[in-house]
Amino acid sequence: MPSPDIALCYGTRPQVIKASVLREELGRSSSVLAVDTGQHYDYALNALLYEQLGVRPPDLFLEVGSGSHGEQTAGILTRVEQVLREQRPRAAVVIGDTNSTLGCALAAAKLRIPVVHVEAGLRATDALMAEEINRRAVDAVAALLCTPSAAATRRVRAERPDARVVETGDVSYDVLQRQTERLPGAAAIVPEILSGEYIYATLHRAELTDRPEVLLGVLGALDSLDRRVVVAVHPRTRAVLEARGLNGALTGSVTLIPAVGYLESLALAREAAAVVTDSGGLQREAYWLGTPCITIRSETEWGETIECGANRLVAPLVAQKLLATAITEQCDQWRSEQRWPRTAYGSGHAAELVTQAVRELI
Ligand code: UD1
User: Model confidence over 256-267: pLDDT tens digits?
Assistant: First the structure.
């Protein structure tokens, strides 16, 4: 078997989504080996996305699964290294800031296979947050840095004057644009909701799930709102709620539903009065769909959404006090005004631009 031109390595829910469009575009002019580490293995977080986005299963599924950060990253590193040794691609493309991104990038860089980092240049001030460690380390070893925004470009140009930097825009926007025609109605997903009247919420980050009392404070704040709140529960959040026996404790406005597919999540975000989330992906999706967002964090890597007013931060510790007002203000502000321009993260052709840059690299 000849070596593939490119190994496209990924492993979590948001990466399966972004990889769908990258695989298609890269595959037009190059041979692509799709490697799914298996960091995410639940049906709704993995296989369902392949089905919904109409992509072939990966060429290799490495079944790394869950574990501590050390175990998970080490598992990815060792298994991907073996694949890369055998296959010898001319470049390895990695996406975002997860443990799969880090493990795959390190495996490739140590074998002197040029690393392409898609979604390069994002930064948070908390340098020890898992995703921040991952993205800084990957940006440090990448040969080609594909950035989603002008600010990210400036940052990596300053940090890595030796590297190739190409501002491609965000591949998530490509996927969203291709799928918006196919979205179901929100009421087909949760029958009791009315378009424009409910809040769509997701909470899954370690900053919340590692501090169950803070997570419960945020859920309590959502539960006491005066409109229906649909919370799609990530397995990690579900585990915390189950461990505390709290699934039945939310008797107010919150309706808990299991993690949904990509199309359902976009549909729920599109028809919501507002989105409340700690997910980076959903912050941008709300921005592109024109739905006001409240982010339950003290900072965001997607500062452009804040600058235009589409998004607003509420720190988890003060959510109980401030969330209701923040939601009301966000909804009131955008009810009467024209929505924000949606140009901060490219034009929906990021995968083409990544492909062009990769071709030039190899
Ligand atoms: C990971 C990423 C995060 C990204 C998120 C999207 C890292 C460090 N974090 O977080 O940046 O926003 O994916 O979802 O890589 N679990 C299941 N089924 C699964 C996957 C996970 O039940 O299919 C449970 C396991 O108990 C696991 C926990 O969720 O221990 C956390 O999973 P993990 O892969 O560590 O990270 P995510 O929280 O999903």
Answer: 999 999 999 999
